[in-house]
Specification:
about 190 residues, 7 helices, de novo design (two linked rop proteins)
Length: about 190
């Protein structure tokens, strides 16, 4: 065999090895992205579970408060509307917006409670308030976990050379679960 043929064989062998490595990297990247997407979807389901749990607790809390605060009809109506909006939301953005409205209405309800000392001592109300506080804490933890997974995923598909493969396989950035500005404001209750 002459040196020219040997050189061509080495170059072809090197190119085949490089192509093999790129294919393996692409397959591994694709599988990693799929695993990350599934983790994000699973974490979103956990947020959904906590949002549903919270919305299921609210009617009981509202009924308990109604007995003490019969004239606060607007707050109860707003809370019910926000609950319905939350249950009807489908996308991450819709859920975040609805959750923000729900939290704002819930904060107004809890502000009203401050004006009823007997209600604050009622055992059923205290139990519901503890359940709600626990749910809010779990929701905050699930939200953080979801956003952490989204951050890691988005970074993975935006960094080179993964961004090239992400474009080929159609991987798109995911939305963060962010609380709208309206839900961050302290409630104002005027009597």
């Amino acid at each position: 065999m002459n040196k020219g043929c040997l050189g061509v064989a080495v170059i072809l062998g090197g190119l085949l090895l490089l192509a093999f490595i790129l294919v393996i990297y692409g397959i591994n990247f694709n599988n990693t992205v799929i695993r990350m997407q599934e983790n994000i979807d699973n974490q979103w389901a956990q947020i959904d579970n906590q949002l549903l749990r919270r919305s299921d607790l609210i009617p009981n809390l509202v009924n308990t408060v109604k007995g003490y605060a019969k004239h606060e009809k607007e707050i109860f109506t707003n809370l019910n509307n926000a609950r319905n909006q939350l249950l009807a939301a489908n996308t991450v953005a819709e859920k975040a917006q609805a959750a923000g409205s729900f939290e704002a209405a819930l904060n107004r309800l809890l502000a009203v409670v401050e004006n009823y000392p007997n209600l604050k001592a009622d055992q059923q109300f205290l139990r519901l308030q503890d359940e709600l506080a626990g749910t809010e804490n779990r929701l905050a933890v699930e939200r953080k976990r979801y956003n952490d997974l989204v951050r890691d995923y988005n970074a993975k598909i935006k960094q080179f050379p993964g961004s090239i493969i992400a474009g080929i396989i159609g991987a798109r950035a995911r939305e963060y679960f962010e609380v709208p500005e309206t839900a961050k404001a302290a409630p104002q209750v005027v009597f």
